[in-house]
Structure formats: structure tokens, C-alpha cells
Design a protein that fits this description.
Elements: E1 22-25, H1 27-31, H2 41-53, E2 58-59, E3 62-63, H3 76-83, H4 85-90, E4 96-97, H5 101-109, E5 114-120, H6 123-130, H7 134-150, E6 154-160, E7 164-165, E8 169-170, H8 173-186, E9 190-195, H9 202-214, E10 222-226, H10 233-242, E11 247-250, H11 270-279, H12 288-302, H13 309-314
Parallel strand pairs: 1-2, 1-11, 3-4, 4-5, 5-6, 6-9, 9-10, 10-11
Antiparallel strand pairs: 7-8
Helix pairs in contact: 2-3, 2-12, 7-8, 8-9, 9-10
Length: 318
């Protein structure tokens, strides 16, 4: 008998928190793209289907970047048709990452209805990741967003290095606000604030969210994406929820890592997030037992245990 079946964690609601949180699952894309070995296309498709069966309603499926950049996701054209029917069958949103107009063309040709672009709050990361300045990258995204919106696609804007940069150190809050405001003005439906190297703390999270609100970026359009490098991801998530954020990025089993922080433990694990939200009486629509089983299944295929504490506790694996 697993712990959730015993009624644990006990739900004790706290004031000032949302009644429901939308989990934006990134394990199939952000998680698997960090794997050294390439996961077979059929396994990826099965992973996405299992995540949907567990109740996740938004699952980022893949990335239409050039295969040379991310060889682990070079099978985007083969994978997406294998899972596209989930949108019709269960209403599952399957957004995909695109870097430019060519990537958008590839995604739209396969029927993608949700796309994401990835910007940077710092010049150093923009140069390293996009080989452009911040302004040049924003200019590159403008026609992508415009064309995607013309096709009635939902558009998300990722903003990397919102809290700290491995080359530049702490990132000034106004600098982040400026990039976020540009993406909203461009037409993005939502933003994802990325703590790319996992250095955020709750006070910093509150300060940035307050500044974004003052800068005209509505809280309803904001999602948060925390890495657990220093064990702060859940604390930072709670701070964001207290501010009114209702979209949280997470990765099943804690898949994914940070290439710039050797001690990084990767993305916030979806199971750890669901455990906390369940204990706060916040609805996610996710079956924790089924999700845990899915992460154990994927961990077996990757040949290593899941880093998620909740997965390990519920599967009785140390």
C-alpha cells in the first residue's frame, strides 16, 4: 500500500494560495534533452502517453531546433505524430519549443497548436545559447510569435537566467522585467521565468514578481521554472503561489540538469511538487501513484534511479 492510499499527505490548506495549479510538464523535452544517450522515439511517445494518463494536461512534447544543437530531440518529426492524437482524445496540450521561423514551419506542418520561444535575460547566456545579443534574439522571435498567433497557436516565452547567470552573477530585476515586457508586447500568451542555474531564493522570487506586476506583466500570464540545485525549488514555488502564480513547470522524476552548475540536481520533480500541493489542499488533477509509476518506468529505461525524493519514498527505492 502506498502512502497516498493511506491518506498522506494530510491536506491542510493555507490562506492566500490558489485552489488549483496547472502543472506544465517539461520532462519529455527539457528533461530528455539533457540525457547523454538518445532515448528511442517509441519510448518517448510512451512516456508522454503515460504522463497524460496520470492526469497531466500540459506536456511539452519536443523541440524543433536543429538536430545538431540538440541531437537527443532530432526525432521531433517522427515523435509528434505519435502523440498528437492526445489533444483530440483527452484535450492534452502538447506545446513544442521552436528557435526560429524554420522551427515554427516544421512544428506547424505537423499540426502543433502550442509553441514556445526561448529568450534570455542576460547578454552572456543569449550569446552562449542563441549566438545573439538579447535585442537580436528578441527581434528574431517577433516574426515567429506573429506568425504563430496568426495561426491561432498558444505562445509561451521562456526567459532564462532570471535570477542568476554563471558569467554575470546576480541579474538585476529591471533587466528581467524589460525582457518579459518585450515578450508580452510581442504577443506571448504566457511567460516562464527560468531559474536556470537554481540560485533563486523566496525573497528574490517575490521581488521579481512584484516588479513584473508594477511593470505591466499580469501575474495570470506568468509561470515559474525552478531548478533544485541548492534545494530551493519548492520554497521558491511556494513564494510564487503566495503571489498568485498558478502555473508551475516541473519534470517527472526530476529529469533534466543544468550544464552550468556541476552540482545541479535538475528540474523540480513533478512528484515532489504534487506532494506539496496535495498537502496544501491544492488541486492538480494528477494521480500521484500513477505519475510515480511512470517515473520509475522511465528511470529503468535510463538505467538509473530517479532523483525525486517523492519517487524514491513511494517506490521504496533508496
Amino acid at each position: 500500500m502506498t502512502t497516498p492510499e493511506l491518506g498522506l499527505p494530510m491536506a491542510v490548506p493555507a490562506e492566500g494560495l490558489p485552489s488549483r495549479v496547472r502543472i506544465y510538464e517539461v520532462g519529455a523535452r527539457d528533461g530528455l534533452q539533457n540525457e547523454k544517450a538518445t532515448v528511442p522515439t517509441e519510448t518517448k511517445a510512451e512516456f508522454i502517453r503515460r504522463l497524460a494518463d496520470a492526469g497531466l494536461t500540459t506536456i511539452e512534447a519536443t523541440s524543433f531546433v536543429h538536430p545538431k544543437w540538440v541531437p537527443q530531440l532530432a526525432d521531433a518529426e517522427q515523435l509528434f505524430p505519435l502523440v498528437r492524437d492526445l489533444t483530440d482524445l483527452s484535450g492534452t496540450a502538447l506545446p513544442v519549443l521552436v528557435p526560429n521561423e524554420r522551427g515554427l514551419d516544421r512544428a506547424l506542418a505537423l499540426g502543433a497548436t502550442g509553441i514556445a520561444v526561448f529568450a534570455s535575460a542576460t547578454e552572456s547566456f543569449a550569446k552562449a545559447n542563441l549566438n545573439r545579443t538579447v535585442e537580436e534574439s528578441l527581434a528574431m522571435f517577433e516574426p515567429v510569435v506573429e506568425r504563430a498567433k496568426a495561426q491561432k497557436a498558444h505562445v509561451r516565452g521562456y526567459v532564462s537566467m532570471c535570477f542568476g547567470d554563471p558569467w554575470e552573477g546576480p541579474v538585476p530585476v529591471p533587466q528581467v522585467v524589460r525582457v518579459c515586457r518585450a515578450l508580452i508586447d510581442m504577443g506571448c500568451d504566457e511567460l516562464s521565468l527560468g531559474d536556470t542555474i537554481g540560485v533563486a531564493t523566496p525573497g528574490h522570487v517575490r521581488a521579481l514578481l512584484t516588479a513584473l506586476g508594477e511593470g505591466g506583466v499580469p501575474t495570470a500570464s506568468i509561470g515559474v521554472h525552478f531548478h533544485d540545485t541548492y534545494g530551493q525549488a519548492l520554497a521558491n514555488t511556494l513564494a510564487a503561489l503566495q503571489h498568485g502564480v498558478t502555473t508551475v513547470d516541473a519534470s517527472a522524476g526530476g529529469l533534466g540538469g543544468c550544464p552550468f552548475a556541476k552540482s545541479a540536481t535538475g528540474n523540480l520533480a513533478t512528484e515532489d511538487l504534487v506532494w506539496m500541493l496535495t498537502g496544501l489542499g491544492i488541486d492538480t488533477g494528477v494521480d500521484l501513484d500513477q505519475l510515480t509509476a511512470t517515473s520509475v518506468w522511465m528511470a529503468e529505461r535510463l538505467g538509473r534511479p530517479s532523483p525525486s525524493r517523492t519517487v524514491r519514498a513511494l517506490s521504496h527505492k533508496e
